[in-house]
Structures are given as structure tokens and as C-alpha cells.
Write a structure and sequence with these properties.
The complex is a heterodimer of chains A (279) and B (90).
Chain A lengths: L23 H13 L3 E6 L2 H6 E2 L2 E2 L5 E4 L4 H14 L6 E7 H6 L2 H10 L3 E7 L35 H7 L4 E6 L3 H12 L4 E7 L3 H4 L6 H10 L6 E4 L2 E4 L9 H6 L8 H7 L5
Parallel strand pairs in A: 1-4, 1-5, 5-6, 6-8, 7-8
Antiparallel strand pairs in A: 2-3, 7-9, 9-10
Helix pairs in contact in A: 1-7, 3-5
Chain B lengths: L14 H4 L12 E5 L9 H5 L21 H5 L5 E5 L5
Classes of the chains: A alpha/beta (279), B alpha+beta (90).
The complex binds thiamine diphosphate, iron/sulfur cluster (3 copies) and magnesium ion.
Magnesium ion binds next to helix 4 of chain A.
């Protein structure tokens, strides 16, 4: 039976972390662990969620959790899964929480290898659309037009890599996209993924008030609006089939979605010359 | 430790029983959420969407760790949560 908010583990497994107020990524991690419960083993590369979760001697994770080198998330997951299995432990779920940079750029090779081997892991990419922990640099998942410290004038000239299509092409067993604005959908996908033996990939949009330029109380609202206007889609890939879980309810409001975020406020002159918002 | 003596389960959770291993974050706040129980319908949305997990399922607020982001107040369809100046509680 499908899990609802009320069935979540009442305990907090990611608590007292040092994420900025209103951090979308921390909500993605918190909820995933409340679905998976105490038998989850978390694996995090360099990035905001490891930086805010591990502050020696403090530990915000109450279940087992590991930091990996930046490029190695999926490889470390593979090793932990194999190691626990070798010790005769079978009741666990190795779950990775890697950022967009850690997934679509530097960690892509390790992820591809894990998918190729069919390793039994659940890889979650929390997508805040830039390298946030080092100060908002453009990543392969920064959307077109978004200003970062490395795309300061015109905003990014590249579109987001389609990570779901990439993992599907690699032969992943289950892939889904989600948004922290629609937690019921995210919860259902994590629960489903946890029930599948094989390589599972969930990509969750997780807005960052600091890097995107909006107020701390708007995080969930913006994550929801991204889906409603079609800037982000909720999809699933399974047995070679694609499914769209939700139609954008107001695609005409894409401009409103962009206007409420500081990162899309590109130099005025450039905007006028290029009819920016309409592109 | 020799392999055969390892327990057939993950080690016990450390933080629940021993208390969290983290220092409080409450000092970050300039505003705090306050729930008006007369308006609340116990839908649980504030508990669900808090990035810090500082609203319990029973709707107790942990002011030692709440950062005052205001998401819970935005999520509450009943308008039961207001953000109040922290200075008034000093
Ligand atoms: C090999 C290596 N290169 C660079 C870094 C520096 N670094 C640490 S976190 C980070 C940004 C991570 O971005 P992302 O994966 O999107 O996660 P976010 O911080 O946005 O949550 C970088 C570049 C590093 N730790 N290791
Ligand atoms: S910079 Fe952004 S992603 Fe990183 S902790 Fe702060 S809000 Fe979260
Ligand atoms: S203000 Fe933010 S941190 Fe505090 S209880 Fe509400 S959602 Fe949680
Ligand atoms: S969101 Fe509002 S109505 Fe729902 S439980 Fe929280 S305070 Fe009560
Ligand atoms: Mg990032």
C-alpha cells in the first residue's frame, strides 16, 4: 500500500543540520530518510548536504552516514552495499545524496559504472541547479538564463542536461524526477525505488534561497511552481517506459516563475537586446 | 573485530538515545512560528514541509532548532501559524 505523510517514520534522521534557513536540499534529505527509516545507510559526496550534516564532532545524521570524495558517490555506495552483504547483513538500503554538480558533472562516471553493474543502490540527486557549497558556480544542471558567479552577465547559455534520459540510456532499473514542492509524489517514488532490487535513480528539484535569490519561506512554493509552469517535470522511467506524472497546470506563467528569482535578473541591457524573458 | 562476531544488524542509533550530537540553531532566528491551535485542523503539512524537522507530528515546536524560515507558516492553509518577532520573546 502506498505510504502517506502519516506513515512516515516519526523520528528525525537528519536533525540539527547547519543548512541555511529554508534550504530545499535539506528537506529532500530529511524526507527521504523518514521514508527509508533507520536501516538506511547514507552516502554523501562533497556538497552542501555533507557540509551541513557533518561538522566534527557534530553529526546531524542519526543513522549510518559516510562522506565520499566528490566524484565517488556511486562507487562508495557500491562498496558499502557489497561490504554489508558480505557480512551477512541484508536488511538495509544504501542511499546516496549528491548535488547536481556531484551527479551530472563530476560523479557521472561512477554513477554510470554502478548502473552498468546493476548495483542495488538508491541514488538521489538533490538538484539546486548550481555548485552551491563553493559559492554558486554553474553546473551541468544550471538552467538556461540563470545567473551564477561563473555566468555573471548573461546567465547560463546552456540548457540543463537531461539526467533522467542519461541514466535511462545507461540502462537504469528505475528512474524518477520529483520536486520538494510535491512531497507526496517524492515519498511514493522513494518507497517504490526502495522496493526494487537494482540501480535506482531519483532526481529531486530542491531550490536554494541563497543561490536562486528568493526569501527563505518561498522554497516549497517555488519548487511547486517549477512543476506547475513546466520548468521542471515529474516523470518516471521503468521497464523501458516513460510516464509523465503531472501535467503543468499553468505553463503560461513561466515568466512569473522566473521573475520571482534573483538569478534570472540578467543585466538589463542584455535583456532588452535579446528579448530575454521570452526566449 | 573478527568478522563472525559482528552483529547481524547496523549499529544502534547513537543520537536518539544519547541526545542529538548537534549544537542548537535557534539563535539564527529573527522571527519565530507560533501555532494558534484554535485555527489548526491537524493536517500535518507544517510538520511535513519543515526542512529542519522542528515541528513534531504532535505539533510541538522545537525552538532550540527552528531557524525561523517561515515555510511552515506558508504551508498552513488555515493561517494558523504566524511569524512573530523574536525580540518580543527575548
Ligand atoms: C575533487 C573536488 N573538486 C572540488 C571540490 C570542491 N567542492 C566541494 S563542494 C562543491 C560544490 C558541490 O556542488 P553540488 O554537487 O551541486 O552540491 P551543492 O553544494 O550545490 O549542494 C565543490 C566544487 C571538492 N571537494 N573535491
Ligand atoms: S547554500 Fe543553498 S543548498 Fe546550500 S545549505 Fe544553503 S540553502 Fe541549502
Ligand atoms: S520556521 Fe522553518 S524551521 Fe521553524 S518550524 Fe517553521 S518550517 Fe521549521
Ligand atoms: S499546517 Fe496549519 S492546520 Fe495544518 S497542522 Fe500545521 S498548523 Fe495545523
Ligand atoms: Mg548543487
Amino acid at each position: 500500500m502506498a505510504m502517506s505523510a502519516r506513515d512516515l517514520d516519526k523520528r528525525e534522521f537528519f536533525f540539527g543540520h547547519k543548512a541555511c534557513a529554508g534550504c530545499g536540499g535539506s528537506l529532500a534529505v530529511r524526507i527521504a530518510l523518514k521514508v527509508l527509516g533507520e536501516r538506511a545507510v547514507s552516502v554523501l559526496p562533497a556538497g552542501c548536504m555533507s557540509a551541513v550534516g557533518f561538522n566534527f564532532p557534530q553529526l546531524a545524521f542519526t543513522n549510518n552516514a559516510f562522506i565520499t570524495p566528490f566524484a565517488a558517490t556511486a562507487s562508495v555506495m557500491t562498496g558499502i552495499e557489497a561490504g554489508l552483504r558480505q557480512r551477512g547483513i541484508d536488511d538495509f538500503q544504501v542511499v546516496g545524496f549528491a548535488g547536481d554538480g556531484g551527479t551530472a558533472d563530476i560523479g557521472l562516471q561512477a554513477l554510470s559504472g554502478a548502473i552498468d553493474r546493476g548495483d542495488n543502490i538508491l541514488y538521489i540527486c538533490y538538484d539546486n541547479e548550481a555548485y552551491m557549497n563553493t559559492g554558486i558556480q554553474k553546473s551541468g544542471l544550471t538552467p538556461y538564463g540563470a545567473k551564477t558567479t561563473t555566468t555573471p552577465y548573461k546567465g547560463s547559455r546552456r540548457h540543463k542536461k537531461d539526467m533522467l534520459a542519461i541514466v535511462a540510456a545507461n540502462g537504469v532499473d528505475y528512474a524518477a524526477s520529483a520536486s520538494i514542492g510535491y512531497l507526496e509524489d517524492y515519498i511514493r517514488k522513494i518507497e517504490k525505488a526502495a522496493g526494487i532490487t537494482g540501480t535506482k535513480y531519483i532526481h529531486v528539484l530542491a531550490p536554494c534561497p541563497v543561490g536562486w535569490g528568493f526569501k527563505t519561506d518561498e522554497t516549497v512554493d517555488i519548487a511547486r511552481e517549477a512543476v506547475d509552469v513546466g520548468a521542471w517535470s515529474l516523470r518516471e522511467y521503468e521497464n523501458g517506459e516513460w510516464k509523465l506524472n503531472r501535467e503543468p497546470s499553468r505553463p503560461q506563467d513561466l515568466e512569473l516563475y522566473m521573475k520571482r528569482q534573483g538569478r534570472f535578473k540578467i543585466e538589463k541591457q542584455y535583456q532588452e537586446e535579446n528579448n530575454y524573458a521570452g526566449e | 573485530m573478527p568478522l563472525k562476531s559482528l552483529p547481524n544488524k547496523a549499529p544502534e542509533l547513537t543520537a536518539f538515545e544519547g541526545g542529538y550530537l548537534v549544537s542548537p540553531n535557534g539563535g539564527w532566528r529573527s522571527v519565530r512560528p507560533v501555532i494558534n491551535m484554535n485555527l489548526c485542523v491537524h493536517c500535518g503539512q507544517c510538520y511535513l514541509y519543515c526542512p529542519d524537522g522542528t515541528i513534531s507530528p504532535e505539533l510541538c515546536l522545537d525552538y532550540n532548532f527552528c531557524k525561523g524560515c517561515g515555510i511552515c507558516a506558508k504551508m498552513c492553509k488555515r493561517g494558523a501559524i504566524t511569524m512573530q518577532k523574536e525580540a518580543d520573546y527575548a
